[in-house]
């Protein structure tokens, strides 16, 4: 990053523990704002210039409401947090229209066709998104240590909003995951023979607390890339997660979120049937109820008819 001003913003956001994707997005819109104002330093600009820029995005670039909101958030951060000169709260600019889109929930037949179209070696990430309701970045950031075969669960760290959670793991994916870990172990062994390889990236400052963690098998990405690449902010060779798996197989009309929506829609009839069962059981004065994990049918076998849900 050549500009000292942008470099200082970048370092400031790192200190504040902003996500890397947020840093990239904010820096992009800050650069666009500076270019729109003929490369004048933002400290010499004011709310009126921000209004003109946001209106320009709507009128001339025809951006969506979410895109305009991202640009606004970036500039609010720039002036309020970094330059310590907050913008006016009553700015008058033309807002983009917010057109709500219906979620794309894939039917069962389309799910089958999609899985058949995906090569076998690339199918496991999609099965995790569908079977555990993972987001795309949650899937590619999975590490070996995040899989708990004993409890049949996945540990998701630093997810959207910086939250952590535990999700269920489909029993059918246990063996494919063990085979994938074996592949990761083989790749990891080959990487350690490279004198320039210093391990995978470790979040926050854990690399200083656990110096050997970047080269340990437990911290390796579950879906490593095909080549070693240099990390953008630190020197050395790092192995990145496979991020292009979806882009290679999506037809453009479906997104990775479609798997997550299908996962949620599959669970709905199951929990609806569970609530009905518990109500009937209460009426019969039963004292034992099935655990929530007992109500989840096997991977890919949930039917929309609640009467077909097996609680055994």
TrEMBL record:
<keyword id="KW-0229">DNA integration</keyword>
<dbReference type="InterPro" id="IPR002104">
    <property type="entry name" value="Integrase_catalytic"/>
</dbReference>
<dbReference type="InterPro" id="IPR044068">
    <property type="entry name" value="CB"/>
</dbReference>
<dbReference type="InterPro" id="IPR011946">
    <property type="entry name" value="Integrase_integron-type"/>
</dbReference>
<dbReference type="Pfam" id="PF00589">
    <property type="entry name" value="Phage_integrase"/>
</dbReference>
<keyword id="KW-0238">DNA-binding</keyword>
<dbReference type="InterPro" id="IPR010998">
    <property type="entry name" value="Integrase_recombinase_N"/>
</dbReference>
<dbReference type="GO" id="GO:0006310">
    <property type="term" value="P:DNA recombination"/>
</dbReference>
<dbReference type="GO" id="GO:0003677">
    <property type="term" value="F:DNA binding"/>
</dbReference>
<dbReference type="InterPro" id="IPR004107">
    <property type="entry name" value="Integrase_SAM-like_N"/>
</dbReference>
<feature type="domain" description="Tyr recombinase">
    <location>
        <begin position="101"/>
        <end position="278"/>
    </location>
</feature>
<protein>
    <submittedName>
        <fullName>Integron integrase</fullName>
    </submittedName>
</protein>
<dbReference type="GO" id="GO:0015074">
    <property type="term" value="P:DNA integration"/>
</dbReference>
<dbReference type="InterPro" id="IPR011010">
    <property type="entry name" value="DNA_brk_join_enz"/>
</dbReference>
<dbReference type="Pfam" id="PF13495">
    <property type="entry name" value="Phage_int_SAM_4"/>
</dbReference>
<keyword id="KW-0233">DNA recombination</keyword>
<feature type="domain" description="Core-binding (CB)">
    <location>
        <begin position="1"/>
        <end position="83"/>
    </location>
</feature>
<dbReference type="InterPro" id="IPR013762">
    <property type="entry name" value="Integrase-like_cat_sf"/>
</dbReference>
């Amino acid at each position: 990053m050549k500009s000292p001003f942008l470099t200082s913003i970048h370092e400031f956001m790192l200190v504040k523990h902003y996500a890397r994707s947020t840093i990239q997005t904010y820096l992009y819109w800050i650069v666009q704002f500076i270019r729109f104002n003929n490369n004048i330093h933002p400290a010499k600009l004011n709310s009126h210039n921000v209004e003109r820029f946001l209106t320009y995005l709507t009128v001339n670039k025809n951006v969506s409401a979410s895109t305009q909101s991202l640009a606004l958030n970036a500039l609010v951060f720039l002036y309020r947090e970094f330059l310590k000169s907050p913008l006016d709260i009553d700015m008058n600019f033309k807002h983009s229209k917010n057109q709500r889109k219906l979620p794309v929930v894939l039917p069962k037949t389309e799910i089958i066709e999609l899985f058949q179209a995906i090569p076998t070696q690339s199918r496991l990430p999609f099965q995790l998104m569908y079977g555990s309701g993972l987001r795309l970045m949650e899937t590619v950031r999975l590490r070996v240590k995040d899989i708990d075969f004993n409890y049949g669960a996945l540990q998701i760290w630093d997810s959207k909003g910086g939250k952590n959670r535990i999700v269920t793991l489909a029993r059918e994916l246990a063996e494919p995951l063990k085979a994938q870990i074996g592949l990761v172990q083989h790749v990891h062994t080959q990487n350690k023979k490279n004198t320039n390889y210093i391990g995978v990236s470790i979040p926050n400052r854990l690399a200083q607390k656990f110096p050997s963690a970047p080269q340990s098998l437990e911290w390796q990405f579950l879906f490593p890339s095909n080549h070693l690449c240099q990390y953008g902010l630190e020197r050395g060779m790092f192995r990145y997660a496979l991020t292009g798996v979806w882009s290679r197989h999506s037809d453009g009309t479906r997104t990775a979120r479609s798997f997550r929506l299908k996962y949620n829609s599959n669970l709905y009839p199951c929990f609806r049937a569970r609530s009905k069962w518990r109500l009937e059981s209460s009426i019969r004065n039963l004292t034992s109820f099935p655990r929530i994990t007992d109500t989840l049918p096997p991977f890919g076998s949930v039917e929309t008819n609640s009467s077909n849900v097996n609680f055994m």
